[in-house]
């Protein structure tokens, strides 16, 4: 919806992106550049990604363009996005709007610039009248599942958690502010996020629900929830979204670490193969497979029992732990169940 009329507005610039194809082709400038930002109108806000497709310089200007460093391209682009009149655009509520700009003959949608842009020497401002625009939902935005999708899980407010340390990318040891009990938090908005990651989170929640109370399989504590970070109106009554999964913390550490430190003999390790096999049998009887069995995905509890973690069954597969017969499969998760089951057993 178009922004409501109000004189109170501001822009908060976020991350700048540009393609790297020009480095491969040896051309002077990228074929696309984008700027993420938050546009505010009083008590409303919109997340926007402004993307320009195309190049600015003609072939006769190639030498000059080659001398422009990335920081200068970023400065020029940020100056340009600050000149756009977002008030006139049909922005999308409660998500990330991507404003795509390109020189596309035949299209009649053109952006408006603010009055102060008229005398600007900015190269993008100069060609703005020839640019058409379209608005779409940004396909690579971080997508947060609604807490309504998993009503059986207890909800804990994200703001009530304090980070203790980072275990791995997107995985943290945390404690609630009101109780110094350690848990593991797997976040949705992880480094190098890809839209597939949200499907992995959903699948892990499904399996956590499926295997509640099953020995040898990681157990859930709650889902960490927050308000939708893209929420346009503060007064919106949207349900909270899932920002992460809160899991039991297993104090014995990973089997990978124990093997690396040559401490296996400190434990009653002969029971571990049976415990792992029993946990996997629960997966297989439920028609599920783990697909990434490896020492890093096995942890020990305080009593020295092993526990399988990372149980989405779709998050990834470590090449060095693939069964030989699927070592060169491009899509191992699409294999028939029997082939995936045998891979679990082999690993």
UniProtKB/TrEMBL annotation:
Keywords: Kinase, Transferase. It comes from Aspergillus pseudonomiae. The keyword Cell wall biogenesis/degradation does not apply. This is Kinase domain protein. Pfam families: Pkinase. One of its GO terms (molecular function) is protein kinase activity. It comes from the Eukaryota. Residues 161-347 form the Protein kinase domain. Transmembrane segments: none annotated. The lineage of its organism: Eukaryota, Fungi, Dikarya, Ascomycota, Pezizomycotina.
